[in-house]
Amino acid sequence: MAKVLIIGAGGVSGVVVHKCAALPEVFSEIMLASRTKEKCDAIAAQLSRPIQTAQVDADNVPELVALIKSFGPELVINVALPYQDLHIMDACLEAGVHYLDTANYEPPDTAKFEYKWQWAYQDRFKNAGLMAVLGSGFDPGVTSVFCHYIQKHYLDEIHTIDIIDVNAGDHGYPFATNFNPEINIREVTAKGRYWQEGEWIETAPLSVKHRFEVPENIATPNIYLMYHEELESLAKHIPHLKRARFWMSFGDSYLKHLEVLGNVGMTRIDEVEFQGQKIIPLQFLRALLPDPASLGPRTKGKTWIGCQVTGLKDGEQKTYVIYNICDHQECYREVQSQAISYTTGVPAFIGAKMVLEQKWSGTGVFNMEQLDPDPFMEDLNSYGLPWKVVEGPVIDLG
Ligand code: NDP
Fold first, then answer.
1. Does residue 73 share a domain with residue 217?
2. Cα separations in angstroms, 293 against 20, 174, 178, 340
3. Counting atoms of ligand 1 from 1, which one is nearest the CA of 293?
4. Better-scored residue on pLDDT, 85 or 189
5. Which of 101, 134, 167 represents a domain boundary (last residue)?
6. Whose C-alpha lies nearest to ligand 1, atom 2?
7. What pLDDT, in 10s, does the model give residues 377-395?
8. Whose CA is closest to atom 42 on ligand 1?
């Protein structure tokens, strides 16, 4: 029985709140706070159980500390934007509560995501006797737990990891993003980067691709090599690792739109003078694009996210693939959201449950692959994200 404060009221938050509200024996009291209180109230109105809502600017640390102290939660779940991570961690330290998020900190003025800023909180969380769980979404999040699970139960040594994220869903719009458009476009337009033998190797954005016949007849999209934040923590925490890469599927129409938007300057993140006002083109574009939270009723199809892992078992080379399939329409029926928000929100809820039930405990800052995968994997099966392990590769990625 514990109180939890959830910050942010977007697509992912809607799922976290639904899932926590459905488990009152763990989440006995819930407060949902965000920049726009009406969005919190709209989510609260979908629930069969009352929760508290509040307005808060999470970048205003004293305001947030006051809110945390007045409500008195054991844990803060941060499902606002990556820009808020450090401010929310500061507030948690000051108020003496545990912290969990789904995406690592990004400075607003540089499209760069690295763990160094959040890892720098290690001693402060340790000394305060508090736990900070970083990246409890699907990727990062479940993908890291998948790798740790393969290491624990299938291989003696992991040598290579290829994380593959396929969204074969169709929302019917010529161009829309499935989660926050600003964060999504910053991520996709960045250079590709993978880790090999202790070095980071860079590739031009979206320049390396493969055709992928996704198991279980989900789709046959192109998948593109990208940088993704869990590569950094997996490289640090998985012993014997020789290479880690991340691949994501994109449709041709999405890429064509992105190319044109980039060519005309609409994905820029620096300030531009427009009619006497300073605007950031990518933020303006965000205002024009469909709200990801509104895609739920119209998105059809499935997601397939998994890890292809190679390594040694009893001296023999082995390959295992561990994956989840999620259906957009089934997610919508359950929690009124599409599968991208669902596959992020459910792991955030399970991560929070692990901390509150003390199945995960410790002091300091933790990435997901550092924690026991077994209770988390069990809950993925129980709460909507069942997974499978198969032996042998599903794709030759060279
Ligand atoms: P949305 O843009 O839909 O929601 C973000 C919410 O945060 C909005 O309600 C917004 O308020 C609120 N917010 C923004 N700034 C502040 C602030 N200063 N104070 C309080 N609230 C604030 O994003 P998503 O739900 O799509 O994504 C949420 C998080 O999940 C992001 O960090 C994203 O990167 C991460 N994510 C992680 C994935 C994973 O697998 N690990 C996958 C997908 C997303 P307002 O409503 O006023 O704009």
1. no
2. 18, 17, 8, 10
3. 3
4. 85
5. 134
6. 180
7. 999 999 999 999 999 999 9
8. 344
Please tell me the predicted confidence (pLDDT) of residue 112: 76
Report the nearest atom of ligand 1 relative to the CA of 80: 7
Q: Which atom of ligand 1 is nearest to the CA of 36?
A: 47
pTM of the model: 0.95
CA 178 to ligand 1: nearest atom: 26
Neighbours of 220 (CB within 10 A): 12
- Contact residues for 284 (Cβ-Cβ < 8 A; gap 6+): 266
Asked if residue 293 has pLDDT above 90, the reply is no
What are the tokens at 218? Answer: 């989900």
Q: Are strands 243-250 and 209-211 parallel, antiparallel or unpaired?
A: unpaired
How far apart are the CA of 202 and the centre of ligand 1, in A? 28
* Dist. CA 357–CA 361, nearest whole Å: 9
Instruction: Assess whether pLDDT exceeds 80 at residue 110.
Output: no
Q: Which residue's C-alpha comes closest to atom 4 of ligand 1?
A: 10
Per-residue pLDDT, averaged over 38-53, amounts to 97
Q: Which protein residues are within 6 Å of ligand 1, measured from CB?
A: 7-13, 34-36, 39, 56-59, 79-82, 84, 102-103, 135, 137-141, 179-180, 183, 292-293, 344
Q: Give pLDDT, residue 141.
A: 98
Position 250 pLDDT exceeds 80: yes
User: In terms of domains, do 163 and 80 share one?
Assistant: no
Q: Is the peptide bond before 108 cis (omega within 30 degrees of 0)?
A: no
Note whether residue 367 is domain-resident: no
Q: Summarize pLDDT for 169-179 with one digit per residue, the tens.
A: 999 999 999 88
* 88, 107, 134 - which closes a domain: 134
CA 122 / ligand 1 centre spacing (Å): 24
Residue 288 has pLDDT above 80, yes or no: yes
- Note the pLDDT of residue 187: 85
Site to substitute for ligand 1 among 344, 368, 380, 385, most atoms within 8 A of C-beta: 344
pLDDT of residue 33: 98
Mean pLDDT of the chain: 96
Taking a C-beta distance cutoff of 8 angstroms, is the pair 119, 127 a contact?
A: no
Which residue's alpha carbon is nearest to atom 13 within ligand 1?
Answer: 80
Residue 99 structural domain: 2-134
Distance from the alpha carbon of residue 53 to the mean position of ligand 1, in angstroms:
16
Element (H, E) at 157: strand 157-167
CB atoms within 10 A of CB 323: 24
